[in-house]
Amino acid sequence: MPTVDAHDTRQLLESMVAELDRSVATLRPEPSDPDDHGTPGDADAGLELADNARSTAVVEAAEEQLKHVRAALARLDEGKYGRCVDCGTELPQDRLEAKPEAARCMSCQAKAESAR
């Protein structure tokens, strides 16, 4: 198995958690004011709705990645980081460098995605 420097990997993953936490906090749309009914036919209402939908999608994607990064930290703590959670094979170093939170080898990842 390629040698994984647990300290460096932990620092990288924890840095990713902090960055994703900041992104989620910054991008999360503020709840609308229930007392602000706007004006009928307000042209900005459609733009605001579209912006909120985009922000929500970005926040959801960041929260999903955050879940994967935290799971990678848990695998690191358990001594299972760098192995496919499905088949147990070693993950290639270049895969871990490109996607440190990767949990599956490419073959198992493709199977998991096609099963969705």
Task: Describe the protein.
With 116 residues, this protein is mainly α. The chain contains four helices and no strands. The protein has one domain: Four Helix Bundle (Hemerythrin (Met), subunit A), CATH 1.20.120.910.
Quick tags:
116 residues, mainly alpha, Four Helix Bundle (Hemerythrin (Met), subunit A)
Describe how the helices and strands are arranged.
Layout (H helix, E strand, L loop, with lengths): L5 H22 L15 H36 L14 H6 L7 H10 L1
Helix pairs in contact: 1-2
Round the mean pLDDT to the nearest integer and report it.
87
Give the DSSP E fraction (strand runs of 2 or more residues).
Answer: under 5%
Query: How far from one another are the termini?
Result: 30 Å
Helix content: 55-70%
How many helices in DSSP terms?
Answer: 4
* Second-tier CATH architecture: Up-down Bundle
By CATH, the topology is Four Helix Bundle (Hemerythrin (Met), subunit A)
Provide the low-confidence segments as ranges: none
The total domain count is 1
* Rg on CA atoms, Å: 19 Å
Briefly characterize the structure.
With 116 residues, the protein is mainly α.
